[in-house]
Amino acid sequence: MQTSSDRHEYPAHWEADVVLRDGGTARIRPITVDDAERLVSFYEQVSDESKYYRFFAPYPRLSAKDVHRFTHHDFVDRVGLAATVGGEFIATVRYDRIGADGTPASAPADEAEVAFLVQDAHQGRGVASALLEHIAAVARERGIRRFAAEVLPANTKMIKVFTDAGYTQKRSFEDGVVRLEFDLEPTDRSLAVQRAREQRAEARSVRRLLAPGSVAVVGTGRTPGGVGRGILDNIRDAGYAGQLYAVNKAFGEDLKELDGVPAHRSVRDIDGPVDLAVVAVPAERVPEVVTECGEHGVQGLVVVSAGYAESGPDGRERQRELVRHARAYGMRIIGPNAFGVINTSPQVRLNASLAPEMPRAGRIGLFAQSGAIGIALLSRLHRRGGGVTGVTGVSTFVSSGNRADVSGNDVIQYWYDDPDTDVVLMYLESIGNPRKFTRLARRTAAAKPLVVVQGAGSAPQGHAVRATRLPHATVSVLLRQAGVIRVDTITELVDAGLLLARQPLPSGPRVAILGNSESLGLLTYDACLSEGLRPHRPLDLTTGATAGDFHAALLRALGDDSCDAVVVTAIPAIGEASVADAELAQALQSAADQVPGKPVLVVHVELGGLAEALSAAAGTAPEPDAAATGTRRLRPSQQLPAPVPARQPAAPDTTPRLIPAYPAAERAARALAEAVKYAQWRREAAEPGRVPEYDDIDEKGAARLIDGMLARGQGLTLGSEETCELLGRYGIAVRRATPAFTPDDAVRAAGELGYPVALKATAPHLRHRADLGGVRLDLADEEQLRRAYAELTGLFGKPEELRPVVQSMAPRGVDTVVRAVIDPAAGAVLSFGLAGAASQLLGDMAHRLVPVTDRDATSLIRSIRTAPLLFGWRGSTPVDTPALEELLLRVSRLVDDHPEVVAVTLEPVVVAPRGLSVLGASVRLAPPPARDDLGPRTLPVY
User: What is the pTM of this model?
Assistant: First the structure.
């Protein structure tokens, strides 16, 4: 809540760009006194019917009093928001705080009346739904917990906006008016509705860029050569299915065509609509082009022009202004400094990129922030000889360049339900919104594989990407937890993509190996062991093996219930190799088609003919008559159950499966191991576990404590008593530690706690360092306690330097540490390890994203390398791991329920054979962020 002294300050953090239902964008911002003319103009464009629905009576124009009321707000009890496009209002929403009697009120009243008005031309675009999300977030921030709205029964569109939002609500009818009351506390349903709308809107915004009905290339040269002319030629030569235009202000008045493409001096001169503009003009001319495109109604831009954030501070500001300018007209941007976009669909055939050739059509979606990496990926996927063979094609390709607007998150939203994409490959230099990325990745990976190379370098220039405090390896673990197949190089990216694009997922790690080279088979066996697979002993068919021998052996292996995948090894044939290669490829393909449930890979040595034959034996492009015959390709996503019920079971796979070939056993084994781990994740994701409810958790009481503590300052580390009180609200008991500044204090504390006791030094340099001698345990009486006190002060200095405490003895067990932190980039993370050298020196800690489920807690404990110490290693007594799992779940709940809790450390947690004891705890609080991934939909601002 704002105080009386700042009630009228303009809340700039409420400003946001949003994607609407049709994929266009709008800006949401508070209405101010400077908006009087905009409001009047907006109202004049609203139909009489919409005005009647808003005011329940004919209301042709706003009076001066109305204009004053609707533009003067205190941003606390009276708030108005507007959605704008091109700087003009297209919709408004306002709330007025009311008391129990329905009259205007101030806090602590927690109810408000809300009302919308949407310009008729923009109704049906989801504007009201987006405004409702934002005005609800504003109201919660201002202490309002409930909205009331009165709607005429005939206004079914507005009633639907409220009822579809997913909030808990009541509905009544009186005096010819429908009254709706709904709580603003987010529910599981409201979050699901919000995220479903987000997915549809962002997917459509990308679809408008990748499947435009018309394209204008702005900056096309009159003669061959140059970026703009090259892109125009690439679009035309690819056979683009839509209308193409060439635009250059330097064209003469008499130039009507350029190599058969209609030519214009400006986008404004084009008679028909333009869906996409590819901008290839110098950076200083881009603002003029953006204005022309916006005024013409262009839906999106691909900006290949350079001279932006990559060029320094001036370029960074130029880039930010570019995004603001384009979004003001409702347009989204790929770039600037982009390589371009490609869509191989026969209905589109778009190559709006610098790639001179259209890549082979296929089922892989490809994203790269770097143009150079994008070129390398396209080249590797297209290559037939050397390196990876058995070519798999591309469905769509996006190179985002400086990633000023459209990011990998947006493209994942598109690929999630794109029927032409089965596998997603991404090269990411950085992740701008990791919380959202992991959420989208988890959902997408449940439907189709998502393979990622994450560069360890810096973020794209000009991006305010929050730096993570977590090690790179930890971030990789968290990505894998979300179902991401995380690889280290683009070679591994392509290797995994080839396997996942058309082979079924393995049901386990057991691998059969067969081939005509004993040594290559043994190399493959060792490579599989190194990757954690369980290979069978290789079957040597000898160098004299025929194609028929391979066929029979592969059939037997695929039919063996004790294996989950088959790796075929082959060395060059002697004599007429090309004939033998073709026969072998057909034999392997035939066997794989007869038993289609298991993946098959080939490891070859300088066997280009076989690689080409395997590639020719089965393609990845859709069959031209698939729609006519009613058959449907079985995708990898349909090999295992997924927790997304929207997808219907596919028909049996009747198309041949491409068999990927690898030039090295290590690469094949690594790709197969990734597929095995992903398949295991898919099986577990089908039953993801649950976040348990505990009756003794006092969430509201904890919230009151936190609010009271934060009232003292912006961020603070709690004292011992406050820490114990807050943790106690979540059923986490911390053993009391009593400060002892004198020996008499220590004796008095021991008398209250009861012997035996422990005496500990809690100074920062001695805390949790029993190896330095700062802890004395099992002190049975006053004499031992005084002697121990004297020893500590004699060794380490005065009591005020040692900060000694007395604590009752806990049952013997294994010392562990539990931590939870809010990482600026990754979000809330729960960590676990053994206390002492294992975690501090060796870094043996395991991590999970919050909220943690019961399955997560179980796997978290077992993920550390020193986990055997908890389960009876070398005859020791196993400890109470169920109690430890419950503790982890309670800490996760605390952090998830209260974003103000930014750090929790429990150390040591002594886990005994029965029960556990938390001997030390610290908690840090900070004000929660104004907006996070649970807030209303909003585009990032860089």
Answer: 0.84
